[in-house]
Amino acid sequence: MLTSSLSQLGAALRSKKISSVELTQLYLKRIAALNPELNAYITVNEELSLQQARAADTQLALSHTHALTGIPIAQKDIFCAKGWRTTCGSKMLSNFIAPYDAHVIEQFNRAGAVNLGKTNMDEFAMGSSNETSFFGKVKNPWNRNSVPGGSSGGSAAAISARMCAAATGTDTGGSIRQPAALCGISGLKPTYGVISRYGMVAFASSLDQAGPMARSAEDLSLLLNAMAGFDARDSTSLQREPEDYTRNLNTPLNGLRIGLPKEFFTEGVHSDVANAIESAIAEYKKLGARIVDIHLPNSSLSVPVYYVLAPAEASSNLSRFDGVRYGYRASGYANLAEMYEKSRAQGFGAEVKRRIMIGTYVLSHGYYDAYYLQAQKIRRLIAQDFVEAFKQCDVIMGPTTPTTAFNLGEKNDDPVQMYLSDIYTIAVNLAGLPGMSIPAGFSNNGLPIGLQIIGNYFEEARMLNVAHQYQQVADWHTRSPQHIEV
Amino acid sequence: MHWEIVIGLEVHVQLSTCSKIFSGAPTAFGAEPNTQACAIDLALPGVLPMLNRGAVERAIKFGLSVGAHIAPRSVFSRKNYFYPDLPKGYQISQFDLPIVGQGSLTIQVPTGTNGQTYEKTVRITRAHLEEDAGKSLHEDIQGLTGIDLNRAGTPLLEIVSEPDMRSAAEAVSYARMLHTLVRWIGICDGNMQEGSFRCDANVSIRRPGKELGTRREIKNLNSFRFLQQAIEYEAQWQIDTLEGGGSIQQATVLFDTEKGETRSMRSKEDAQDYRYFPDPDLLPVVIDDEWIEQIRSSLPELPLSKQAHYTADFGLSAYDANTLTSSREMADFFEATLNEVPNEAKLCANWLMGDINASLNRQSLDITQCPISPRQLGCILKRIVDGTISSTAAKEVFKTLWSEGGEPDAIIDTKGLKQMSDTGAMEAMIEEIIASNPSQVAEYRNGKEKLFGFFAGLAMKASKGKANPAQMNEILKRKLAG
Amino acid sequence: MLLSIDDVFKIARLARLGLTEDEAQIAHSQLSSIFGLIAEMQAVDTHGIEPMSHAQDISQRLREDTVTETNQRELFQSAAPQVKNGLYLVPQVIE
């Protein structure tokens, strides 16, 4: 069961080979065994999960089913789920029981999926290593001295260690793709606006986008079918005809034009990563794809631009955490100003405070034009680069990350080095494009490597097709960490 | 050498939508604390704002009614500051791209001499949409402040004027005109006690022709009387300060309504830096011409245009026209009354502004609660015009109608208020008076014309007050002449 | 752009983040190196480029003016640090 794809699990549930309650218990048992070491989950709530599983079994008995009915799915702890503690990886929300469901949660509930638990993450999704979580770091199942990546590191680790059938993530600058790459799984960040942000705790509103994380592209397409769709409560949710993201999975890749940006293949890329990507590209050529050299001249500016825009939005988004209506309030304060300052100083971790300060500064009087406005202008240049590139190719490929998973603690004291680990993923968020990462091999020391696939706006079905066809000839995505029993 | 007072107003108009500007929570006034604050108003993690069409529509209505440009594309920005009644830690407002651009409002300013006014046009800089904050309640709990977020998210239109006003009277006239207008076009209930219409006044003084002085902003004035008092006090304070050798620092002040003084708010630790930036949760608001035209065609005739119509076509004074257009209901009442007695605009105006208004005020009613309908008032006036009753009798009909109801003609009949218009009867009556007062008649005919009043009095008495005075005088004059 | 330690305190105050002297020193050095990274942007000629606030070039949808929310005070206030008589309580606000 633990190695089954979502469609296999669905078939097993519908044919009553296993019940949703049994499947849920299987995963809960596995979480109980592995989580103390890996720390992939912040909150597990057996009662709530099994309640949903029982309801799913009723639906299954009545044959009222969706592809995901009865399947246990882990939710990143950034999504509000009614009755569930929703912490966003922060002390600030460590006791916050969400009083409502995020759109994404509603969609899964409607499909009859089981919420298996809330996965660990960098605090408020700010981080690339999952080390900023108030609930402790997550370990990479492939090597417990390595980071799983972030911010959706708990989801990535849980999938990789088979502690859930699939999971959700959010991606503001690479937070789905980078941990997917580092944990050897598949992850997709859709076009901005495809999945509603309602009920997803905001980090940087103009960049945040939820997405599915799973073992294979096929699984991602089933999850995306459930997650995508118009939501009137999110002004940036796009009104589009619903799509079946599985529809193109089996289309042959003959004539596919793959753009390779020279900016993604510089000396900064580790040789193991470069080799793996090269082999994957070679495989694509065998599948009938054609290679086009492209340029993304402004992409090198994406890290600085991102570290102006994302903190600016975050500094404002996180102002609501003031200890007045919910969340952490410091004990012992002389007056209102002190209540604010102490609650926020104690409730937020170092990285979050750092970013709030960056954001506050770049928006403050006298600096707005030089930082914020300049960054917004360069953001447009970066987006325009992609528009030009997609005139010549159908998808863009490159490494998801410059290196494989780094060691826990390695970049903790050097935020700039940490920020640069998202160098290849950030531009996609700035442009609002869809991007994904799929497993494409291993380094010499046995750590996973991710291939990034970037598509044009709304080309998710095409990207999933491109990924799926590769996964028909490569088996990286089926591998599981050596010392984790399946 | 005298000082010139320079005033600009920022008026916060609560828009009369039934739901909030960014959420589906109700806006009704007076609910139990926090029962009308939904997840969005409370800024729970993960919630997002969704803009209310009704608020945008009302802003457009206002813009069109002051001849302003409606921005085809406007943007919502975040104004960042911490305050317990501001749940998100920022207020969603508009900054560099407001929905309503430059416009103007023409006002009638009373000169202080009875009924005299002069006209002035005040330029409106802009008007923008924003959300209201909640309320901080300081009274009940020792050492603590209670926060009620029912009002958080109520739509406001902030209307900013140029510093065009030169006296408290002008500022009050402008505020009153604005108050009339927003109710007239149905975008605000105008209830000042409930805070639906609040003024901030920027006041500075200067020597005429010189550059603008440093201004101080008086916050949150919620009555016209306080607006007047606060500006007068503040201007005098500034004059005294400068003449005493002091200087004015830019500041925000509150008006203490009990002491009648303005005082500085406790200064913030550090200067405010609101860090405005476009709200990433909201997209640019695009308003097309079709929508604008649709709203334009739905607008009622505006007070200013009605005033012009009343003075030009009905011959009313500017003062009368201004009073009759103080609300749409008043103007409607006036026009409906006039419809009953065409060509008698002045008579209608006098009765409306006189007896009707006085009676309404006595009972604290507004025109919509008037127990006498325009048709009934019109009927009374018609009877005056056609000579059926005297003005004195009309007042009696009015009083009866007001307190007991009924129909004017029936009241005239039952009370026997009809004027005597039978000339024959009147002549006979007067002949009798002449016959029974021969000595006075002789004196009169010898030149003691003062005695006319004596005869008129007797005649009116004899007619039991029902004689048409003009008719009676004419006959009396003729008979006395012999 | 050189960030001073005073700037760090000023930002922290604006953001309502209490900061000790030691924390300010660390923040100062880290923020300085981050602004070193950000400085790369300054050389780019962006004359005439329209700032990009949103990923999609679309306009705001409007919600019809109807009441859709009901009173959930009890549920919402169950998460509040301090409430009384339906009010959220904070230390006294002085104007």
Explained architecture:
The complex is a heterotrimer of chains A (486), B (482) and C (95). By secondary structure, chain A is an alpha/beta fold. Chain A has helices at residues 6-14, 20-38, 46-61, 103-111, 153-160, 177-183, 217-227, 271-286, 302-317, 336-347, 350-363, 368-389, 415-420, 426-431, 460-473, and strands spanning 41-43, 72-76, 114-119, 166-171, 186-189, 209-214, 257-261, 290-294, 395-399, 435-442, 448-455. Among the domains of chain A are: 6-256, Amidase signature (AS) enzymes, CATH 3.90.1300.10; 300-378, no CATH class. Chain A contains 15 helices and 11 strands. In chain A, a hairpin with a 5-residue loop joins strand 10 (435-442) and strand 11 (448-455). In chain A, helix 9 (302-317) packs across helix 11. Chain B folds into 3 domains: 4-291, no CATH class; 301-414, no CATH class; 423-481, Orthogonal Bundle (Arc Repressor Mutant, subunit A). Chain B has helices spanning 53-65, 168-184, 224-243, 289-298, 303-314, 318-324, 328-340, 345-362, 374-385, 391-404, 408-414, 423-436, 438-445, 452-462, 469-481, and strands at residues 4-14, 73-74, 77-80, 90-93, 103-110, 117-131, 135-137, 144-148, 155-161, 197-206, 216-221, 251-256, 261-264, 277-278, 285-286. Chain B is elongated, with a radius of gyration of 30 Å. Chain C has a domain at 5-43: Orthogonal Bundle (Histone, subunit A), CATH 1.10.20. In chain C, 35% of the residues lie in helices and 7% in strands. Chain C contains 3 helices and 2 strands, in the order H-H-H-E-E. Chain C has helices at 5-14, 21-38, 73-77; strands at residues 83-84, 87-91. Chain C is flat. Chains in contact: A-B, A-C, B-C. Chains A and C meet through helix 9, helix 10, helix 11, helix 12 and helix 13 of A and helix 1, helix 2 and strand 2 of C.
